[in-house]
Amino acid sequence: MNTDTQTDRTPIVSVRDLRVTFTGGKKPVKAVNGVDLSVARGETVALIGESGSGKSVTLRSLLRLHPARRTRIEGRIDVAGVDVLAMNNRTLADYRGRIASMIFQEPLLALDPVYTVGAQIVESIRRHERISPADARKRALELFERVRIPSPERRLDAYPHEMSGGMRQRAMIALALACRPQVLLADEPTTALDATVQIQILLLLRELQRELGLGIIFVTHDMGAAVEVADRFAVMYAGRIVEEGPTREVIRNPRHPYTLALMQARADGAMEKGARLASIPGAPPDLANLPAGCAFAERCTFVQPACLQTQPDAVELGGSHRARCLRTDATAHVMTRAATHAPRPLTETA
Amino acid sequence: MSTGISIEHIGAPAGSDRGGPAQPLLTVNKLVKHFDLKKSFVETLVGGGKVVRAVDGVDFKIMKGETLGVVGESGCGKSTTARLLMHLIDPSAGEIVFNGETVGSPQLSLREYRRQVQMVFQDSYSSLNPRLTIQDSIAFGPQVHGVPKQEAVTRARSLLSRVGLEPRRFAGRYPHELSGGQRQRVNIARALACEPRLVILDEAVSALDKSVEAQVLNLLMDLKEEFGLTYLFISHDLHVVRYISDRVMVMYLGKVAETGPAEALFQEPHHPYTRALLSSMPSMDPDHRTEQAALAGDPPNPIDPPSGCRFHTRCPLAEAVCSQRVPILENRNQRETACLIHEPGSGHSLAGTAIHAS
Question: For the whole model, what pTM was predicted?
């Protein structure tokens, strides 16, 4: 197992021009429209966006969880050197859990209610490895200790409904790690949790990633949670990654108007009480009916006629920071200018 | 402005305003709600059995025109408190005084009280009737309270335009034809249709995306000023509560841990739980990430809450006395704290020393 904290350069996940279209309804819905993403070993990438931005659809495509008959997936996905879209059902089942596994937002729905969590972990290990039930249970116990579930021996025999929310999420992380995957896909794993529990789970993920050298894709709409775990940010809007770069760069100096607006709309960024929040007018576009130009153009404060004509290409901003926008010149240093009236620190005692 | 005559007196004193601005609009005394768990046959005969102590003796006041924010983890009783205030569930004990009259007394019937206190729920979809157009939904409440249909519809349309939904485009739509942010605007308009003085917002913006959340928060601030409303704002999002509230109440396992003016409370939390809750917020600074979780484990079960101070099982400053003695909500300089450290002579070794100079 890789215990090296350094990230090595060959990407473990490589997504090229991914397009996902759902064809079940009256009109085809273009949920993902050309996503390029790569994740190095031991790296955590946060995929950030609002509902309908395509972040979860992208993530689920990596395990091919979409119903095959009603979904058209185009592009190329390679995980640990295997072409995911070319797999047949059998190799796909071997791949899920063994090379890449997923943790979900709501563990109560993701875990099977009629089996104990221990039995589910044992089943998963024995699906992938020739190992005796007793040894598999021993592994399950180690995993429970690893994710710091108190009195793990007893908890293995608990049903999901007998555990608290935070404990269930830990159990699901244990289940996801049962077959020693190289990639962990996390779909809003802390959204349903209380703040005090959320930070515990985020710290656990960070620690596991460091010790096991996992590549993690962390899907969330919560910038704060993403800052705690991610090395890199990828911001999605209307099925495209509109801005991508190191966490520090994207947070301190966002260059796509959408990222900029998201940062400014945060209530904690408000300069003073009673001042109006900078909100983004309008609503996200209809994915069944996308505009020809930039999808954010009609809500954008920097919009120009050219924005309505073409899809902007990614503009390199240095240090692997790039944004799909024609107006990156206008967005430079907007945040740093605003930061001269820095928002008050939130907790002096922290 | 196209509001017309029909909504101009929303929030204006209905009947008589008592006591002037110094008297609280709402006073809650020793409010208790226990939910019975399934009982065995013997227990139904002789009494007993376990109860969930969802709200266990809560006292607070809401002043006229202020926004009181309520924060706490799941299971702390914040939503139960909201439902008790609306009388959607009956309290096990305790008293709610609204504008100087006890709710449910002959002077203030439940029906009249409910007209003056309205609520907006978290789930914008399930709180609207799917078979009514949004105009009918908004006009329904006033009609129940005796407003003629024509006037109720006029009022609904002017409210729709006030919350930013053009009536000509939206009035005839059904809830499923709107986005989440638009539906929540409809819910706000519906709450205002009965001309309330107090609006309870129970996680009203929590389900919205950040960009839409900012729009709705701005709208709430505008409406409050325009109609002179008072808000009870419940949320688990501490940033939003800090932004919108004048005062904040922190709850833990069915009890009030601390209340105080929002800025003072966030700058200098008195109760160890408030301090832990605030430091659990993600830092938003990639160079100073959180290294240590402030609290371990989940909140305890409200079925058998810990004895004494309910926070003692997770409190970093707990001493033996904390498991024996129930702290009293002490009032000092507008701030109330239920912690033995802030209670002189309580037996806690830090008692008296931790009382801040503020």
Answer: 0.85
